[in-house]
Amino acid sequence: MKKKKILNIIIGIFLLLAILVWGGYSMKGSIIPLFFRVQEPVDVDRGVKKGEKEVDEIDIEIIAEDLEVPWEIAFLSDDSILISQRGGSLLRVSSGEIESIAEVRSVGEGGLLGMALHPDFSNNNFLYLYMTTNEDNRVIRYRLENNDLIEDRVIISEIPKAKFHNGGRIAFGPDGYLYVSTGDAQNTQLSQDLSSLAGKILRLDENGDYVEDNPFGDHIYSYGHRNPQGLAWDSEDNLWSTEHGPTAQDELNLIKKGKNYGWPTISGDEKREGMESAVLQSGYDYTWAPSGMTYFKGSLYFAGLRGQSIYEAKIEEKDVVDFIVHFKEDFGRIRSINLGPDEMFYIITNNTDGRGSPREGDDKLIKINPRLFK
Ligand SMILES: [Ca+2]
C-alpha cells in the first residue's frame, strides 16, 4: 500500500515535469521575443557575430523595417524617432512600433524630404518639413502635438522644383538659424542666378525671414550649388555640405557665407577665380551620390546612395586629412546618417524607390555603434 502511494507520487511528479517541459518548448517562439529585444544578425563582414557579445551590447540593431523610401530622421527622445518618407508620410518609431502620424500635402517627384526640429522643440513643438508640392519646393512649419501634425505657417516657398535635383536637407545651425539646401532643379543656369532660390544654401530665421547679415540681403547664404543634400557643422561650427556632382565629381564643401561653389562652371576640385573648389571630391570615375551627413568626434560621416557606403572624412583645420569607406554594399543605398541623443549612429537605407535592389525588410532604420568605425 505504502509502495503504491510513493509510486503514484513519482508518476505524478514525472507527468507534471513532462507537461512543463512540453509547454515551455512549444511556447519558445513567443516567449523569447518578450524577454530579448529582437535583434537581427546583420550580414556584414565587420559586424559583430551573434554570440560573440553580451545581449545588451548591441552594435548593429535594426530599429524599424518595411519603410517606404525614408529620407530623414529626427529624434524626439532616445526611444522615439520621427522618419519622413518621400511619398509624403511622417512616421514615429517607438520601441520598435511604427505609427503613421500624418500624410503631408500632395507631392511631386521630389516629395517629403528634409525635416528639422526647432532647437526649442520641447517648448514650442515646432517641426519643419521640406517638401515638393505641385507648384514648388517649400518648407512648412508644423506643431507636433502628441500625434497630431498641425500646420503653422509656410516658412519659405517658390524654391524651383523638378523631377531631379530638389536639394531638400534642412538643419538648424549652432547660430540658431535654419539652413536649407536647394538643387538646381535641372536648370543649371539658376545656380549662378542670385534672383533664384535654386542651387543655393539658404539661411532663415525660425519664422522664415532672412537673416539680417546674410550676404545679399535676402535668403541666400551660398550659391553655385548643383544638388546639395547634406549639412553638418563640425566642433568649430564650420558648415560642411555634401553635393551630388555631374556623373562622379561628387563634392564635400566647406560652406562660407556669400561664396560661389562653381556649378555649372566648375565641378569637384576644378579651380576658377572667385569660385570655391570642393575640399574633397569623389574623382572623375567614381560616384558617392552623397546625401545626409553628421559630425562626430573629428570626422564627418555621410551617406552614399550609389556608393552604397558610409563615408568618413577626418577633418583638421578645415581640411580633410583622411578618408575612409565603411560598410561598402552591406546595407545597399544609404540616404542618411544621424547621430542620436544616445551618441549612436542611425542610418536609413534607400533601396525601395526603384533605383536599388530591396533586401528583406527594406527599407530599414538601423542603429550602429560608432565604435565599429574605429
Ligand atoms: Ca562645386
How are the secondary structure elements laid out?
Layout: H1 2-26, H2 28-35, E1 60-64, E2 70-77, E3 80-85, E4 89-94, E5 97-103, E6 112-117, H3 121-124, E7 126-132, E8 137-145, E9 148-159, E10 170-172, E11 178-181, E12 200-204, E13 220-223, E14 228-233, E15 239-243, E16 251-255, E17 280-281, E18 290-296, E19 299-304, E20 310-316, E21 319-326, E22 334-339, E23 345-349, E24 365-368
Antiparallel strand pairs: 1-24, 2-3, 3-4, 4-5, 6-7, 7-8, 8-9, 10-11, 11-12, 12-13, 14-15, 15-16, 16-17, 18-19, 19-20, 20-21, 22-23, 23-24
Calcium ion binds at residues 251, 261-263, 267, 278.
Which features does this protein show?
374 residues; mainly beta; Neuraminidase; 3 helices
* Rg measurement, Å: 25 Å
Give the N-to-C terminal Cα separation: 74 Å
Average pLDDT number: 88
CATH H-tier superfamily = TolB, C-terminal domain
Q: Count of helices?
A: 3
Largest sheet: 4 strands, antiparallel
SSE pattern: HHEEEEEEHEEEEEEEEEEEEEEEEEE
Please tell me about this protein's structure.
There is one protein chain. The chain has 374 residues and is mainly β. It has a single domain (60-373), classed as TolB, C-terminal domain (Neuraminidase). It is 10% helix and 38% strand. The protein has three helices and 24 strands. The strands form six sheets. It has a four-stranded antiparallel sheet, with no helix packed on it. A four-stranded antiparallel sheet has the order 2-3-4-5, with no helix packed on it. A four-stranded antiparallel sheet has the order 6-7-8-9, with no helix packed on it. Strand 8 and strand 9 form a beta hairpin. It binds calcium ion. Calcium ion (CA) binds at residues 251, 261-263, 267, 278. Residues 251, 261-263, 267, 278 line the site of calcium ion.
